[in-house]
């Protein structure tokens, strides 16, 4: 069985699990929408890294077949399927990630400077998507909202913006392996790089552990609190805070 077939089977299995969770009332309609929004948003985030890197001379992602919007090329069985399913079963919301797009900063024309732009391309893409969602909601959706209730189309556009605001803000946190760490790395003196790179490989498991710990402490974890603040802020930006309350 080739790799593409395995990924396709993982996606099918994940969809089946998610439908089963929804039908058994373990997750809400809003969580289904968030799940359906977060996957393409993460993929666009990752692809943008490769697109910008390719523009600056690094064709690693292009040669790896990762400059595509085909979700099969980007799905991570654990991050895209298993973790969101487990968190949903625990009633702790939805969180996940896709396979990182490979980037070889050594191939960039100006590795240290352009490396910063490559890393920030992901959060910038999420910010642009959120801005588009805001324009659509305010000028197309909001004028037709009923006095009471929140239609599904409004909910979808609302969460497209909210999820991308969240992805932008969360990824700008200046700790590795998040994109915001590039600002810290850019200022790090060269003599500290060997030590930093030696420990950087352990940051992803630590970050994932902290995220999972936060969600199992739901609703008291700091990440959950931050997401709640962003939810209220985004609702006020779109002018629907009273409707949601």
Can you walk through the features of this model?
The chain is 68% helix and 0% strand. It is built from 11 helices and no strands. The protein has helices spanning 3-23, 29-55, 60-63, 77-89, 111-141, 152-171, 181-187, 193-200, 203-216, 222-238, 241-244. Helix 2 packs antiparallel against helix 5 (111-141) and helix 5 (111-141) packs antiparallel against helix 6. The N and C termini lie far apart (50 Å). The model has no long low-confidence stretch (mean pLDDT 81).
Question: Which residues form runs of ≥5 with pLDDT under 50?
Answer: none
- Spatial gap, N to C terminus: 50 Å
Task: Tell me the β content.
Answer: under 5%
The biggest beta sheet is recorded as: none
Q: Report the principal-axis shape.
A: globular
Helix and strand composition category: mainly alpha
- Tally of contiguous helical segments: 11
Order of helices and strands: HHHHHHHHHHH
Mean pLDDT: 81
Report the strand count.
0
């Amino acid at each position: 069985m080739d790799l593409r077939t395995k990924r396709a089977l993982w996606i099918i299995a994940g969809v089946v699990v998610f439908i089963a969770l929804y039908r058994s009332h373990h997750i809400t309609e809003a969580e289904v929408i968030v799940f359906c929004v977060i996957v393409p948003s993460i993929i666009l985030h990752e692809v943008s890294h490769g697109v910008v890197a390719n523009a600056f001379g690094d064709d690693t992602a292009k040669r790896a077949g990762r400059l595509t919007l085909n979700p099969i090329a980007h799905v991570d069985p654990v991050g895209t399927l298993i973790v969101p399913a487990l968190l949903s079963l625990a009633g702790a919301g939805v969180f996940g990630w896709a396979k990182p797009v490979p980037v070889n900063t050594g191939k960039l024309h100006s590795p240290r400077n352009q490396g910063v732009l490559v890393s920030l391309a992901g959060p910038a893409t999420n910010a642009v998507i959120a801005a588009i969602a805001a324009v659509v909601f305010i000028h197309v959706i909001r004028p037709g909202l009923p006095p009471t209730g929140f239609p599904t189309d409004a909910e979808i556009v609302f969460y497209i913006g909210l999820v991308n605001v969240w992805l932008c803000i969360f990824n700008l946190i200046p700790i590795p392996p998040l994109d915001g760490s590039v600002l810290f790395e850019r200022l790090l003196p060269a003599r500290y790089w060997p030590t930093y790179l030696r420990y950087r490989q352990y940051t992803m498991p630590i970050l994932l552990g902290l995220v999972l710990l936060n969600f199992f402490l739901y609703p008291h974890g700091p990440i959950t609190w931050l997401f709640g603040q962003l939810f209220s802020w985004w609702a006020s930006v779109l002018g629907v805070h009273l409707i949601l309350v």
